[in-house]
């Protein structure tokens, strides 16, 4: 953690000075390597013996646990992979190749450094103040990121919208933490948990008024904090900004916006919900559960239940009527958030296991999906792949890439041998085991509905258009990776030729990009052969949360 | 007397903040914003948080709001444009109603209606507060000031009474602030002490945010031709 922070800081501060010496290609590559190295460092701290139940660092303002370290490792790895997504633009001036990238790419990767520093701090924050500061650092980076392409009107518009609504949700979080502070007199989570548990055990409701009063205030504050965070992850009744924002920003920014901040926020929500023991909700009132602890529990439980169900429904039903591909992906994100929140609110060992697994799976799938869409955008002749109908007939011009896209979509829809099926299955299994029958049935129905719009894309991919039948024959006896990259280069050579004389711009996919796409797709496909790695690790993590 | 004045200030603050949102003319709304800031600063000073109140006036009123005023006067927004875009946002009204209903449902499922009337057990303001907003603000004041001065008093009170009082628990739990029991600081000293010892990492994080803010303004407003 300390290493990571310092490392990122040094890089972020030092590189603008060297900015003139390093070309932009090297710039984001260096940063992506830095991310992978920091991921490795935080992976190393997993082996520390003392980490046990978690260490508070920086005078208790931050808190390192095994889960936070694991998620940080994963997070940095994903960011490192995500930065690869920039295309190379090859400029030929007098037959000498110059490798350029998009002019925004250095700023992009620099801001991503800041923003992911904020999210990694958020994952391990253990105090209301540090929580607020890190969420601000994270989302401030995101606002800048979404207004990065300031020449395009849609990007600026969506960035402004994101900024205003994100500011609103930050204000709600701040109000909530103010209320919590005013009723408990402390900002540290540890103290708040302690107060809550003392109230649980020894003082029944009626003996003194102060305890009850404290708990009500704490509940109100926590509710407000939760609402703010649900706003930030665009869970359903508060989802309204997300399709507009995701649609307006350029795809490479959207990729960051949809995936990574949500991981951090979910980890934080996991931290709070498990420590307040929002476990069974109203199910075991009769047993040892004392009413006072039930107060904090039940309110957040209800909040999570309502948002989970409504985001399941809204995400899949409204997604049916979308014609733009990024809006559709935003709605599918909302429905996936419904699943994740469902796993979060059940809050048993098994459901936390499925929660972590769902987040890992969803991140990988979504990253792959966006990388493919980026690749299609670059190889396709048009500048931006906006509408679903643009994907029409793509299978015949670019079979392997669209095959990867199909695999991704199937995995999101939850077709059995793919990884998405298993995650949904675990969530539903945990739900049924704990008596959430109605919600489970609803989730199944809704996932069938949402499968229909994924299948709509797949159908468009392979639907043949009579006026434009151009089938490229590609040798398929090579393995997928090589075929993939060769196919990409062959199609990209014909892609973007300016008839400008001397200067011709060719957008070319990097080899790493296509390699990552193929690897991720293979992970999605072949997960069921050896599932023990991811499953064991998530299970161990969820056990470490409960039995320490 | 002071509490009445404080309540009046808070009401004025709320009123002017509502007016600053609803007023049609941007210049007038900025003036109401300044009113809000001034009354907030006066509120802070009256309840004993002098330094932050004064810095509120210096920073917000002196710098930011005046800057706002200048910018709005310079760019000369047409009023009709603002009014036109306003209609765009009323189409989400059903969603807003849904959200508010759900929120109120959750709140009143868990909190009783009599929530507003109970005073804090260690609240030393004599008059029961009128509305919830005032109440929570008082609680905040209480927390802030008690963390600095009044813990000692509470402790002696607790020992004599032998009744479980809530502030006892708070002192036990607030490890960082138990240092404050030994010495008395001035307000700025307290702030500095907390910020430079206990919350040094917060200071670093704040400086990172500031760095990002500077970088962001440079990135967003720079001329792209020289890359």
Automatic annotation (TrEMBL), chain A:
InterPro entries: NADH-Q_OxRdtase_suN/2, ND/Mrp_TM. GO terms for cellular component: membrane. The chain crosses the membrane at residues 24-43, 74-93, 105-123, 129-150, 162-183, 213-235, 256-279, 299-321, 328-346, 358-379, 400-423, 435-455, 500-529. GO terms for biological process: ATP synthesis coupled electron transport. Keywords: Membrane, Signal, Transmembrane, Transmembrane helix. GO terms for molecular function: NADH dehydrogenase (ubiquinone) activity. Residues 125-450 form the NADH:quinone oxidoreductase/Mrp antiporter transmembrane domain. The keyword Transmembrane applies. Residues 1-16 form the signal peptide. It catalyses: a ubiquinone + NADH + 5 H(+)(in) = a ubiquinol + NAD(+) + 4 H(+)(out). Belongs to the complex I subunit 2 family. This is NADH-ubiquinone oxidoreductase chain 2.
UniProtKB/TrEMBL annotation, chain B:
Gene3D superfamilies: NADH-ubiquinone/plastoquinone oxidoreductase chain 6, subunit NuoJ. GO terms for molecular function: NADH dehydrogenase (ubiquinone) activity. Keywords: Membrane, Signal, Transmembrane, Transmembrane helix. InterPro entries: NADH_UbQ/plastoQ_OxRdtase_su6, Nuo/plastoQ_OxRdtase_6_NuoJ. The keyword GTP-binding does not apply. Residues 1-20 form the signal peptide. It holds the Pfam family Oxidored_q3. The chain crosses the membrane at residues 30-49, 56-75, 95-115, 195-220. This is NADH-ubiquinone oxidoreductase chain 6.
């Amino acid at each position: 953690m300390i290493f990571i922070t310092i490392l990122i800081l040094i890089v972020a501060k030092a590189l603008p000075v060297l900015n003139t010496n390093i070309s932009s290609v090297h710039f984001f590559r260096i940063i992506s390597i830095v991310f992978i190295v920091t991921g490795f460092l935080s992976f190393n701290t997993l082996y520390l013996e003392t980490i046990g139940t978690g260490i508070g660092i920086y005078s208790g303002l931050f808190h390192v646990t095994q889960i936070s370290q694991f998620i940080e490792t994963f997070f940095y790895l994903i960011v490192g992979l995500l930065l690869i997504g920039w295309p190379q633009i090859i400029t030929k001036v007098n037959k000498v190749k110059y490798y350029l990238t998009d002019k925004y790419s250095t700023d992009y990767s620099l801001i991503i450094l800041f923003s992911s520093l904020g999210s990694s701090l958020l994952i391990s924050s253990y105090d209301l103040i540090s929580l607020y500061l890190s969420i601000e650092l994270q989302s401030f980076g995101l606002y800048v990121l979404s207004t990065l392409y300031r020449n395009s009107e849609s990007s600026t518009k969506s960035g402004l919208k994101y900024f205003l609504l994100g500011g609103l949700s930050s204000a709600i979080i701040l109000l909530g933490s103010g209320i919590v502070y005013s009723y408990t007199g402390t900002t540290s989570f540890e103290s708040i948990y302690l107060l809550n548990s003392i109230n649980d055990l020894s003082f029944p409701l009626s003996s003194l008024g102060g305890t009850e009063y404290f708990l009500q205030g704490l509940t109100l504050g926590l509710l407000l904090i939760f609402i703010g965070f649900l706003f930030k992850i665009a869970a359903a009744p508060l989802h309204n900004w997300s399709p507009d924002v995701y649609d307006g920003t350029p795809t490479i920014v959207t990729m960051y916006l949809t995936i990574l901040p949500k991981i951090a926020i979910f980890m934080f929500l996991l931290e709070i919900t498990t420590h307040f023991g929002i476990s069974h909700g109203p199910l075991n009132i009769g047993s040892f559960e004392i009413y006072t602890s039930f107060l904090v529990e039940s309110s957040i439980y209800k909040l999570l239940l309502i948002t989970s169900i409504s985001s399941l429904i809204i995400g899949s039903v409204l997604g049916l009527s979308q014609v733009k591909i990024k809006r559709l992906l935003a709605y599918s994100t909302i429905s996936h958030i419904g699943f994740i929140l469902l796993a979060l609110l059940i809050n048993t060992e098994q459901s936390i296991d499925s929660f972590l697994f769902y987040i890992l799976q969803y991140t990988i799938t979504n990253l792959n999906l966006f990388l493919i869409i980026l690749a299609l955008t670059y190889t396709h002749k048009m500048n931006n792949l906006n509408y679903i109908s643009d994907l029409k007939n793509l299978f015949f011009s670019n079979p392997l890439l669209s095959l990867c896209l199909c695999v991704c979509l199937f995995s999101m829809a939850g077709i059995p041998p793919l990884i998405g099926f298993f995650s949904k299955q675990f969530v539903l299994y945990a739900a049924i085991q704990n008596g959430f029958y109605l919600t489970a049935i609803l989730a199944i129905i809704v996932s069938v509905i949402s499968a229909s719009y994924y299948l709509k894309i797949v159908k468009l991919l392979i639907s043949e258009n009579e006026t434009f039948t151009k089938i490229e024959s590609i040798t398929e006896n090579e393995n997928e990776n090589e075929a993939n990259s060769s196919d990409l280069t062959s199609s990209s050579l014909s892609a973007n030729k300016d008839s400008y004389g001397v200067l011709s711009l060719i957008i070319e996919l990097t080899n790493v990009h296509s390699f990552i796409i193929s690897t991720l797709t293979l992970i999605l496909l072949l997960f069921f052969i050896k599932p023990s790695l991811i499953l064991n690790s998530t299970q161990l993590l969820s056990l470490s949360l409960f039995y320490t | 007397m002071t509490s009445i004045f404080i309540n009046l200030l808070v009401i004025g603050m709320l009123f002017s903040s509502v007016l600053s949102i609803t007023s049609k003319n941007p210049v007038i709304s900025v003036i109401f914003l300044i009113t809000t800031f001034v009354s907030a600063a006066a509120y802070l000073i009256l309840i004993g948080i002098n330094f932050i109140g004064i810095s509120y006036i210096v920073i917000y009123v002196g710098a930011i709001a005046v800057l706002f005023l200048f910018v709005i006067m310079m760019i000369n927004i047409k009023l009709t444009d603002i009014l036109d875009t306003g209609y765009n946002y009323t189409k989400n009204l059903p969603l807003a109603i849904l959200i508010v209903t759900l929120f109120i449902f959750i709140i009143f499922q868990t909190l009783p209606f009599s929530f507003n009337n109970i005073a804090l057990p260690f609240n030393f303001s004599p008059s029961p507060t009128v509305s919830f907003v005032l109440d929570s603000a008082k609680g905040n004041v209480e927390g802030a000031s008690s963390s600095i001065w009044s813990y000692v008093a509470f402790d002696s009170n607790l020992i004599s009474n032998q009744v479980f009082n809530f502030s006892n628990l708070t002192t036990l739990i607030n490890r960082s602030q138990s240092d404050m029991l030994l010495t008395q600081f001035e307000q700025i000293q307290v702030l500095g002490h907390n910020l430079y010892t206990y919350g040094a990492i917060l200071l670093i994080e704040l400086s990172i945010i500031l760095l990002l803010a500077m970088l962001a303004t440079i990135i967003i407003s720079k001329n792209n031709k020289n890359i």
